[in-house]
Specification:
The complex is a heterodimer. Helix content of chain A is 47%, strand content 10%. Chain A contains 13 helices and 8 strands. The longest helix of chain A is centred in the last third of the chain and has 18 residues, at 228-245. In chain A, 54% of the residues are buried. Chain B contains 15 helices and 20 strands. The longest helix of chain B has 22 residues, at 112-133. By secondary structure, chain B is an alpha/beta fold. In chain B, strand 17 (416-420), helix 14 (424-433) and strand 18 form a beta-alpha-beta unit. Classes of the chains: A alpha/beta, B alpha/beta. Chains A and B meet through helix 2, helix 3 and helix 12 of A and helix 9 of B.
């Protein structure tokens, strides 16, 4: 890394120091990064390892509904499923959280009351983030006041791409402050819009420097969401950040992860890049809605030896 | 609870290894004239896999005669006809890829991940590539009607048994030559399976002959007066002996010998990918690669950081059963090779280089060596000069690009080199000054049939692969 721990505090002293730091990060060779992600994808995870990975993945799911048509009833159903994903098998672990729009936080909170399941809310004018900062902060405060345990904020990609890193930094700092002591902050980069791996590495460090508790790939609302390569890159960033500052930051790939096989590949990335310390739902999450059912069906298959089919898991 | 990967072994049942094999001469499996046999073992378990006939001088003579006889018809075939056979062989290799991958892993000790994902696809690709040349030789730039040389005597090593066979046989057949090939004594099986593939493809008798044996078999083949072309891949010492034998004869000769490749990492390199490239450069096939990046030259300013990343990465390498799909590091090919590695490493320690080995448990049977680094190495250390041919990386540092080039070139070898930097102009500037046959930038150990491969100085002469690879098998006077 281009700087040492004691100078990291000065990195955000000015626009120019911040830029110099971010542009001084080691480059990313796209071919090499994708090759590494692909080679880890060929790990063969079977039997006991597979059973362990499936349960771990279930416990890491942020069960998500982010539709304009969401209703309190749908959120209630989602909450019930998060608490007890498989009604036929009580040994299935609960998911990590349910993730909803801010106005649905009270319904979600009620639905998961008394369980370990957290309520996450996408505040800050999700998914575009194109609103004045006062609006974004109000959005966050409302969600936190309604009981959200976690805030998923989107960064201002326009400012980032324009090289206005300080604006992005300041917004994250302000949102983190609005989260208060009770809510953890996940910072969403929308990696599909950042377009280069170098940008994703810079965004990761920018987010962590500004106080993110989690860095998250995407909103799930654009064409390219979480990929093995961009997640691998972010895992390298949190690993290096902890080595340098002692601060551990979580990672959340979101969007496009639909099958158990894919989820297990991501867990292999975590295991062999950041390491065991991140193999826990406090430090790694899957932002997904359809993934959970495939995990449950695979879990049933491991338990019974037969593949049950979509009618043997709940739709919501 | 930790995320422990359960064993995921590839099934052995796909490959049917016979208790004994003969020599493949004139389209038939036959016993050695003097009845000699030797055993081939699995390096990961020391289990005897099969007993193989050992070719002597008389067998060499029989095989060369068969090849000579077959040459008349084979060389007279239109190129498009020869191409058909080569395409057929390539397709059969693809169809039998899994079987051959398991076989190679059993006989060689390298991980199934590598035989399955690297070796076999490249083997098929080489046959496809040279099949494509067979009817276009007049357009290859070697004259209007280039002629084949005749009988090619080929001797190949044990590190990539089937791939080296493909590198030798595919261009030889495409250009109209016939071959007598001696596989290494520790890895004869895949060549014998290839003999079966030749029969399956209906290749005319005598075009390909396979003679398992030791060094003396190779020596008789090289010295046989009716061999027109000798191609050898292996150690520099044996290569020199072959050059002496062939000197003064009309035989054409190509040699692919040892190496001590420099992998140069500049301070602006993509560090995470460079670490992967270093791992791939020296720990691919347990470092038993002639073009391995066995000397890491790292810019002083990032040395500590890079070494820390490298050690962390090496600690995640999985060593063990080569048939397990999750194994990264397999067994060393033979007891002899293991003892050579061990003694060179001991010498490195005795000379004062700082040794670090990855913390991994070695299986109790078989031949194993943990991935190892030597730090604080200088050009004067043996581990910086001699080819170790094992999973041992020597780390040296440099301050300026000129120093990097000077150190990289300061070796009797010149087969490969790597450059890691984000700066394109630096890649070109440094690559121009490096004396090595292959120079990779921001990658390492990437092979492709279209790309020529070969070395300078004690790494040999001649090129294999690509259009250039045809020259070694054509009369281009």
């Amino acid at each position: 890394m281009p700087t040492t721990a004691h100078t990291l505090t000065d990195v955000a002293a000015s626009e120019s120091t911040l830029r110099r730091f971010l542009h001084g990060l080691p480059g990313v060779d796209a071919v090499g990064l994708e090759a590494r992600a692909a080679s880890l994808g060929t790990r063969s995870i079977k039997t006991t390892a597979k059973a362990y990975a499936i349960d771990l993945a279930i416990s890491m799911v942020d069960l998500t509904t982010l539709e304009g048509a969401d209703t309190p009833g749908k959120v209630r159903a989602l909450g019930a499923k998060a608490v007890r994903p498989d009604p036929t098998d009580r040994t299935a672990p609960a998911t990590a959280a349910v993730c909803v729009y801010p106005d649905m936080v009270p319904a979600a909170k009620a639905a998961v009351a008394g369980s370990t399941v957290k309520v996450a809310s996408v505040a800050t004018a999700f998914p575009a983030g194109r609103a004045p900062i006062v609006v974004k902060l109000a959005d966050v405060r409302e969600a936190v006041a309604a009981g959200a345990d976690e805030i998923d904020m989107v960064i201002d990609r326009g400012a980032f791409l324009a090289g206005n890193y300080m604006k992005v930094y300041d917004e994250i700092v302000a949102v983190k402050e609005a989260c208060g002591a009770s809510a953890r902050l996940k910072v969403i980069f929308e990696t599909g819009e950042l377009s280069t791996y170098d940008n994703i590495r810079r965004a990761s460090w920018l987010g962590m420097l500004a106080g993110a508790d989690f860095i998250k790939t995407s909103t799930g609302k654009v064409a390219v969401n979480a990929t093995p390569a961009n997640t691998l890159l972010m895992l390298e960033a949190v690993r290096d950040f902890r080595a340098q500052t002692g601060v551990q930051v979580g990672v959340k790939p979101a969007g496009g992860i639909r099958t158990s096989k894919d989820a297990i590949k991501f867990l292999v990335l975590v295991n062999e890049t950041a390491g065991e310390d991140w193999l826990d739902n406090h430090w790694f999450r899957f932002g997904a809605s359809s993934l959970l059912n495939d995990l449950l069906m695979q879990r049933q298959k491991l338990a019974t030896g037969r593949y049950s089919g979509p009618d043997y898991v709940t739709v919501d | 609870m930790a995320f422990e990967y359960a064993p995921a072994p590839e099934s052995r049942s796909i490959v049917d290894i016979a208790p004994s094999y003969g020599l493949f001469i004139d389209g038939e499996f036959v016993e050695a004239a003097d009845g000699k046999v030797f055993k081939t073992v699995s390096p990961s378990t020391e289990e005897v896999l099969s007993e193989v006939a050992q070719a002597g001088a008389e067998d060499v003579d029989r095989a060369v005669k068969a090849a000579r006889k077959a040459f008349e018809k084979w060389s007279a075939l239109p190129g498009s006809e020869r191409a058909k056979y080569l395409f057929r062989i390539a397709r059969i290799i693809q169809e039998r890829a899994r079987e051959l991958a398991v076989l190679e892993t059993l006989d060689n000790g390298k991980p199934i991940k590598e035989t399955r994902d690297a070796d076999l696809p490249l083997v098929a690709a080489h046959f496809f590539y040279y099949a494509g040349w067979a009817d276009k030789l007049e357009h290859a730039g070697f004259g209007a009607a280039p002629r084949p040389l005749g009988v090619a005597g080929q001797v190949i090593p044990w590190n990539f048994p089937l791939l080296m066979l493909a590198w030798k046989i595919a261009p030889a057949l495409a250009t109209g030559n016939t071959v007598v090939l001696k596989p290494a004594e520790t890895t004869p099986l895949s060549a014998l399976f290839f003999a079966d593939i030749c029969r399956q493809a209906g290749l005319p008798k005598g075009v390909v002959n396979i003679l398992p044996g030791y060094g003396d078999t190779g020596a008789s083949l090289v010295a046989h007066p009716d061999v027109n072309k000798v191609a050898f891949t292996g150690s520099t010492a044996v290569g020199k002996e072959i050059a002496r034998t062939v000197a003064g004869s009309k035989k054409k000769l190509t040699l692919e010998l040892g190496g001590k490749g420099a992998n140069i990492v500049f301070d602006d390199a993509p560090i995470d990918q460079a670490v992967e490239g270093i791992v791939n450069g020296i720990f691919f096939n347990q470092g038993q690669v002639c073009c391995a990046g066995s000397r890491l030259l790292v810019q002083e300013s990032i040395q500590d950081e890079l070494l820390e990343s490298l050690k962390r990465r090496l600690s995640t390498l999985r060593l063990g059963d080569p048939l397990d799909k999750n194994t990264d590091i397999g067994a060393i090919n033979s007891a002899e090779q293991l003892s050579r590695i061990t003694s060179l490493v001991e010498q490195g320690e005795a000379e004062g280089a700082e040794r670090w080995s990855a913390p991994c448990e070695l299986p109790s049977s078989g031949y194993w060596f943990a991935p190892t680094l030597f730090m604080n190495v200088t050009q004067a250390h043996t581990v910086a000069r001699d080819e170790i041919f094992g999973p041992v990386l020597s780390v040296l540092s440099f301050r300026t690009p000129d120093e990097a080039v000077a150190k990289a070139n300061n070796t009797p070898y010149g087969l490969s080199a790597g450059i890691w930097t984000e700066k394109g102009s630096r890649i070109l500037a440094v690559a121009n000054k490096l004396r090595a046959g292959v120079i990779w930038s921001n990658t390492f150990n990437k092979f492709d049939p279209t790309s020529p491969f070969g070395g300078y100085k004690e790494s040999g002469f001649g090129r294999e692969g690509g259009r250039h690879g045809l020259e070694a098998y054509l009369d281009v006077r």
